[in-house]
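in:
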């Protein structure tokens, strides 16, 4: 799938790649609509009818990932609500072992996430994620999501990497396409980002079923 002799830098997505996407999917699709309905004193269906089109409308933009945006738009304390279900935050199987193996193999491990710094802080509280990384970059630092070409130019300014010798692991096809367009040579998707969801298929990118498949020697 990959040749580790040809790779110096590994760019790693967080949600759905290193961490189980179950937390985020549960929060945005189930918990938030229920709490929104409770606060607004409306039926759950009415809350869903208001929230889901709003989410689809801005999906893929930096605001979609921004806790400040959603707190203001919904008049709710989104970080506080996330903490209410923070016990669901966890690593995907063997993610920690994979990160440690990368470090032992001399690869630079850089987290590149669209997550808001507030969400990132919560996940670093709940897991030892940051201990297994060499650098952490949030798209909110640039106000550009990973889906856009400008993100990769901005990343290059703070974390110099050779695209020809870089691997990106990400569970979002739009991000993988943007990285491919930028020239990143090695690209892998994730077969099952959400442990409670279905496995994915892709004819466009190779998908990792288990980190065992790509563990460096």
């Amino acid at each position: 799938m990959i040749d580790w002799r040809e790779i110096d830098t590994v760019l790693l997505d967080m949600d759905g790649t290193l961490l189980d996407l179950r937390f985020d999917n549960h929060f945005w699709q189930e918990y938030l609509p229920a709490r929104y309905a409770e606060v607004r004193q409306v039926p759950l269906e009415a809350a869903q009818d208001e929230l889901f089109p709003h989410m689809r409308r801005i999906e893929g933009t930096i605001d979609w990932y921004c806790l400040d945006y959603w707190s203001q738009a919904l008049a709710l304390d989104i970080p506080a609500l996330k903490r209410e279900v923070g016990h669901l935050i966890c690593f995907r199987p063997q993610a920690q072992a994979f990160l440690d193996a990368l470090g032992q193999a001399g690869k630079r491990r850089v987290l590149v996430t669209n997550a808001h710094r507030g969400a990132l802080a919560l996940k670093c509280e709940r897991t030892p994620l940051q201990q297994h990384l060499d650098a952490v970059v949030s798209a909110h630092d640039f106000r550009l999501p990973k889906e856009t070409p400008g993100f990769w130019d901005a990343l290059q300014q703070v974390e110099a990497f050779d695209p020809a010798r870089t691997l990106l692991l990400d569970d979002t096809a739009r991000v993988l396409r943007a990285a491919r367009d930028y020239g990143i040579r090695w690209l892998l998707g994730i077969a099952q980002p959400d442990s409670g969801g279905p496995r994915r298929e892709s004819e466009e990118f190779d998908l990792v079923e288990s980190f065992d498949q790509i563990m460096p020697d």
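note: The mean pLDDT is 96.
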